[in-house]
Amino acid sequence: MSLLYADDECLNKPINHTRLNMHAVELFQPRAIAQATHIIKPLLVSADIPIEAGELSLFSTHPQTINLITPNQQLITIHRYNNGLSPMGMVLKSSDFDDLLTFLLDGEIPLYQLPTGELQIGLYLISLATHVCQLTLKSHSLINKSDIASLLKQINQPTGLFGELSNNLSGEYPPQLEMLCSTMNNLMNGIADDITPFIGLGPGLTPSFDDIIVGMLAVISGDHRFTTQMRQLKLAFEPLPLDLLTTKVSVSFLTYALQGKFSLLVQQVIKSFEKHNYRHSSIKNLVNYGHTSGSDLLLGIWLGIDRFVLRD
Predict the structure, then answer these.
(1) CA neighbor of 184 nearest in space, from 140, 110, 234
(2) How does pLDDT run across 8-19, given as a tens digit for each residue?
(3) Average pLDDT estimate for 113-122
(4) By three-state DSSP, how is residue 136 classified?
(5) Same domain assignment for residues 229 and 203
(6) What is the mean pLDDT of residues 197-226?
(7) Is residue 138 included in any domain, yes or no?
(8) Is residue 1 part of a domain?
(9) How many CB atoms lie within 10 A of CB 150?
């Protein structure tokens, strides 16, 4: 079986166990875990998937994803094959995903994460002994701004709040986007400003402005020239009550983005831009991601390029 998700260079880093609370490991004694009879081996797992021994909760189910949540409110996302990989996720074969989803929807199922990081979902045990993908983005900024603008001007998919993506490439942006760029610039330069009006703003499971911010960070955070500014931005975000401002899924993506970690699909798009490959399948896949999330992410990527990385 061929894996279509990552280049070999992405598959070398072990899973990050730093989030594992060793005290919790010592005390973790599940009330009653039945002996697993079905072992599922993911096709791919993020190196930074949360590992927190204890009882999990089922947060949400969708045709392409299953979201679990740890006692410390960290999200673990199980993806169906060919639907990307998030920094908090793993990818299952479609048949395994369907079996698991059907099992979860049949009734109340005991859910646990073991000290090893493995997931036990009723009689199913999801192993982590598989390909591990490093999702920290390192960008070299070898991009052609005019070529990317020409590409995005051909994309007529709607964004969440600003009409078609193609109508937002002129450099003259709606006032809300101008204010967002100004606020981000202030925070990155240690100037006090309030970004909370933008967090959680817009439609979607991941609201539009959150997707735009993640897209901006995908360009900025991997560029070594912005190391100091990213440190300032993280400091500005640390005290914000993100859980009260936006959705749980969006909190996860924003938190990882501030650490320089992004979904594999976003990474593939950035890498395709660096290689001047504007026909890469990842671009079309991102455009079609969610109802408007893909277009909002691309709008954010463009704003990151136009207003920060390659500002005129």
Answers:
(1) 234
(2) 445 555 666 544
(3) 93
(4) strand
(5) yes
(6) 94
(7) no
(8) no
(9) 12
Domain that includes residue 61, residue range: 8-133
Q: Is residue 3 part of a domain?
A: no
Do 87 and 221 fall within a single domain?
no
Instruction: Write down the H helix ranges in 158-203.
Output: 175-188
Backbone φ/ψ region at 73: left (φ over 0), alpha (ψ -120 to 50), beta: left
Cα 277 to Cα 133, 230, 271, 309: the distances in Å are: 22, 28, 9, 19
Cβ atoms of 273 and 148 within 8 Å: the answer is yes
- How much is the pTM? 0.89
Provide the terminal-to-terminal Cα distance of the chain, rounded to the nearest Å: 46
User: How much is the pLDDT for 33?
Assistant: 55
Contact yes or no for 307/212 (Cβ under 8 A): no
Alpha-carbon distance of 229 to 11, in angstroms, equals: 29
Q: Which of 196, 217, 218, 210 is nearest to 161 (CA)?
A: 210
Asked if residue 130 lies in contact with residue 73, where contact means CB atoms within 8 angstroms, the answer is no
The count of domains in the chain is 2
| Residue 293 Cα distances to 97, 209, 214, 274, 289, angstroms | 23, 10, 11, 22, 6
- Residue 186: CA atoms inside 13 Å, Cβ hemisphere, count? 11
Count CA within 13 A, CB hemisphere, residue 198: 21
Q: Based on the domain organization, do 80 and 158 belong to the same domain?
A: no
Backbone dihedral angles phi then psi of residue 222, each to the nearest 5 degrees = -85, -5
Q: Considering all CA atoms of the chain, what is the largest pairwise distance in Å, rounded to the nearest integer?
A: 62
Token pair, residue 271, equals: 């890498």
Structure tokens at 201: 């703003």
pLDDT digit string (tens) for 288-310?
988 899 999 999 999 999 999 87
